[in-house]
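Just scan my protein:

. . .
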Amino acid sequence: SAAGAAALAVAPAAGLAIVDYDAVKYLGGTDKVDLNNANVQAYRQFPGMYPTAAGWIATHGPYKQVGDLYEIKGVPENVKALFKKYEGQFVVLPANE
């Protein structure tokens, strides 16, 4: 029928999604998180990081290396301890504009 053909013509085609950002896995989809591009929600997987420690990270970038976390002025020692605990799970990629 014409109605059926019209519905098929406007329906999105099934297919594979094209990912144009190779580092999407570091935005919360794996056990590694990109300090420059992930939002605070990505840190929920690390007990104690969300929301306070994650907020410090998200509001003080961009970073050139993971060690830059320890240069943030005013970070309480308990938050620095969380950075240290999970620093092996962090990566630093160029910040998306």
Residues 77-86 form the longest helix (10 residues). The chain has a mean pLDDT of 82. The helical segments are 2-10, 52-59, 77-86.
